[in-house]
Amino acid sequence: MPLGPKAAYLGISLSRRYYSNRRLHKYVQWAQGNAARFAFLIGDNIYALTDSVFSDRTFSSALVVALERGREFCERIETILIEESYTAEIIRWNELESHTEYQRLLSTFQEEYMRRNSHFAQCVRQEVVGNLKRRLTDEVVKRFDSEEEPTSWNILDSYVLREMAGLITMSEYLGFSVEVYPGPDVGILNMLYKNVFPSLTNDLPETTKREFISLSF
Fold first, then answer.
1. The 3-state secondary structure of 133-182, one letter per residue
2. Which of left, alpha, beta for 195 (phi over 0: left; psi -120 to 50: alpha)?
3. DSSP calls for the chain
4. Is residue 165 part of a domain?
5. Is the peptide bond before 5 cis (omega within 30 degrees of 0)?
6. Which of 136, 212, 82 lies closest to 74 in space, CA to CA?
7. Which regions in the chain score pLDDT beneath 50?
8. 203: containing domain
9. 128 is a domain residue
10. Of 12, 21, 33, 38, which has the fewest CB atoms closer than 10 Å, so is most exposed?
């Protein structure tokens, strides 16, 4: 599936044990024959949101753990790139957060999320439940529902908002138009691109570039 002049990136989710060195080698080898440029996006500090909800850690403690795991991933990838004699970018989530477009998108998504009876907010919550259904036991859901604002639900919803802003920034503004991921695309992101949320579609470029490839090894 050669992409021609297009650049691609692989999203690294710290919650998954999938990313062995063997598989990372396979992605680099795929990139060599299919992408004009390639990047690894390390979802480190965004992972701290989920970790702080499902562990006993405070957010600040979870952030320390997430950043350390992100650093370890960077070192592993750098070694693999040397072994494959290939050049790729390694982008950590805090680098995305420094971009004006990321900040603008996140602010827009947060405003829409906070609107009373927002359809968008309902779909964000559905995305959370779909992604974390194995961890959302009846006991956990009952605990979340009993919390005062801001609840664990709000924190998990925030993850989705930040994920959307980050993936759009990568594809539409940083030039890595093709996202490669070992799983399905983000459902609510597809809904956004299909104009399910008209008030938000105006915040996308007139000509969108984003493509998605589900690729596993």
1. CCCCCHHHHHHHHHCCCCCHHHHHHHHHHHHHHHHHHHHHHCCCCEEEEC
2. left
3. ---TT-EEEEEEETT-S---HHHHHHHHHHHHHH-SEEEEEEE-TTHHHHHHHHSS--HHHHHHHHHHHHHHHHHHHHHHHHHHT---EEEEHHHHHTSHHHHHHHHHHHHHHHSTT-HHHHHHHHHHHHHSTTT--HHHHHHHHHPPSSPHHHHHHHHHHHHHHHHHIIIIISS--EEEESS---HHHHHHHTTSSHHHHTTS-SS---EEEE---
4. yes
5. no
6. 82
7. none
8. 7-214
9. yes
10. 33
Q: What is the dihedral of CA 190, 196, 198, 200, to 10 degrees?
A: -40
Q: Which pTM was predicted?
A: 0.93
Instruction: Find the distance separating the first CA and the last CA of the chain, reported in whole Å.
Output: 15
- The pairing of strands 37-43 and 7-13 is parallel
CA distance 167 to 160: 11
pLDDT in tens, 54-106: 998 899 999 999 999 999 999 999 999 999 999 999 999 999 999 999 999 99
Q: Which two tokens stand for residue 64?
A: 């320390």
